[in-house]
Amino acid sequence: MVEATTAQQGQLTTAMSMLLFLFICIFLEIVYVRTTHTRSSVKIAVNIADREPNLPVEKYEFEQPIVSKASATSDSEECRIVLLLRGHMVNEDMLRRIEQYIESCKKRKPHVDIWLSLDTTSVSGQAALVKTWFGSKTKVASKSLYVHEYNSSDMAKAFPKLSTASAKAFKKWRSMSLALGFHSEAIELWRRAALPLLNGVCFVWVLELDVGYAGGDIAEMMFDYNENLDFITHPTGCKQVNKRWLHRFAISSAYDEIIPADKRMFSFEMAQRFSISLLEQIGKNLELGAHAWSEQVGCSTCLVANLTIGTLHSKHIGNPFTFKHGRAISNKVLDEKAAKSSTINRLYHPVK
Question: How confident is the model at residue 70 (pLDDT cuts 50, 70, 90)?
Fold first, then answer.
């Protein structure tokens, strides 16, 4: 009996030793996996930060871009860019800048189409002026510049519910052209007109005519933004619409339904880039009668549709770059900035 008991105790000791050994192995495996995962996560985070230092997590921050999880567009090498210049009146300085843009963009492959979209509500004959100017420029290739014209009547006809938003605009703007504050509708009119020529286009840069670029190669700046972001806007990013924002009431009932109040944000519009996906989504909303003062349309549409947002790089922003027209600079000053290494290759606004 003593021998049997001793044998049983030996077997029990052996079993316990094996269980202890298995427990230690499992514990070490868990520690190893967690350590490896942590190192891998840190490495990935560092790589992302190195690649896109300005892209934070999904937070509504004014100073930085808002980025969601959605992918923007195709990475195809044939993805084309369009430069759309908007305004209502041109002058010789603006035409010279456009000529520089044409020279810059025609060197690119795939080529960059340049469009001039003119609001003729209060000023007519601008398209003829543009045609005369470039007709005398033999070095400018034919079909280097497309011209689109529209007016307030065109906008009102295409968007019957627009008046319900414009009627609530701040008083001094109610008697002016609809295109002054409702750029999204004006851009949508252009998109519809240009649709047959937009095959293969992934992004549309929209610049106001009084934006100046100090440097000869604006295409280099545009192609520097190789992130697949649906919306690139002013460096201050998207700001929450609140009671301090002057244009918060200028919305239609459909916009009020489609865009929740907590998703309404605005951004300055002097220079922005739109993906075709974003422009199409804005177009669908406009078809439903969703209208708003355009400064809030890009940011808000992206937030509701889960599209991505970024900002212009600080290296491309000059001084001034503001909506305050009292700080306007002349084209002569813009040329002076283009001659200095510290101020070249930057966007300036307003340039009169």
Answer: very low
Rounded Cα–Cα distance for residues 25 and 189 (Å): 68
DSSP secondary structure string for all residues of 142-170:
TTSEEEEEE-HHHHHHH-TTHHHHHTTS-
Report yes or no: 179 and 155 within 8 Å, Cβ to Cβ: yes
Alpha-carbon dihedral sign for residues 116, 181, 264, 157:
negative
Q: What digits encode the pLDDT tens for the residues 249-262?
A: 999 999 999 999 99
Peptide bond into 320 cis (omega under 30): yes
CB 185 within 8 A of CB 286: yes
Quick one: which of 303, 213, 224, 271 has its CA closest to 54?
A: 224
Q: Which residues contact 312 (CB under 8 A, 6 or more apart)?
A: 232, 233, 234, 235, 271, 347
pTM attached to this predicted model: 0.78
Closest among 169, 211, 203, 332 to 277, alpha carbons compared: 203
Q: How far is residue 259's CA from residue 246's CA, in Å, rounded to a whole number?
A: 18
